[in-house]
Design the sequence.
């Protein structure tokens, strides 16, 4: 597991890409419990315990439904397990780094926590674009455009499915 953690860290610092992830269902079986756990912790910190598992399932489904058609229509479907593992693995690493900022925002928000979250959102966009670029063998700007589309679509869909997430506290 240490090697996988190191691999995903190298992906988020742009030293490696999804092509370096082993194309094995075993990798996904290792990642899914960690993905669920870290996302549940984030949703718990944000006060969304009642719908946390549904939100995690919706998020995972959106990743699959975004990556699979792109790879299918570009004729690179064989890269799907690696791309999916890269998306999930980098999400886990970035969410791990986001935990202190999220906890700070929920207890006593400050400018550093807001700046940290903004930086992590921008970093997530760059990492997702990097993964799409490598998975599809396209230019970086194409990957960044797809990543922006994915982030916008997923945030809109999550807000529609879970309106309590986007409404301000009363």
Sequence:
């Amino acid at each position: 597991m240490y090697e996988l953690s190191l691999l995903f860290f190298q992906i988020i610092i742009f030293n490696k890409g999804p092509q370096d992830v082993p194309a094995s269902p075993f990798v996904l079986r290792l990642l899914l419990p960690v993905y669920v756990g870290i996302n549940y912790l984030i949703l718990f910190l944000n006060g969304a315990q009642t719908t946390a598992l549904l939100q995690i399932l919706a998020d995972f489904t959106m990743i699959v439904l975004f990556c699979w058609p792109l790879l299918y229509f570009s004729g690179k479907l064989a890269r799907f397990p690696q791309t999916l593992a890269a998306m999930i693995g980098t999400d886990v690493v970035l969410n791990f780094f986001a935990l202190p900022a999220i906890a700070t925002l929920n207890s006593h928000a400050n400018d550093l926590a807001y700046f940290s979250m903004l930086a992590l959102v921008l970093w997530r966009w760059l990492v997702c674009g990097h993964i799409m670029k490598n998975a599809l063998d396209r230019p970086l700007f194409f990957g960044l455009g797809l990543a922006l589309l994915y982030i916008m679509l997923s945030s809109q869909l999550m807000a529609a499915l879970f309106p309590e997430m986007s409404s301000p506290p009363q």
Remarks:
- The chain has a mean pLDDT of 92.
- The CA atoms of residues 159 and 165 lie 6 Å apart.
- DSSP finds seven helices and no strands in the chain.
- Residues 2-166 form one domain.
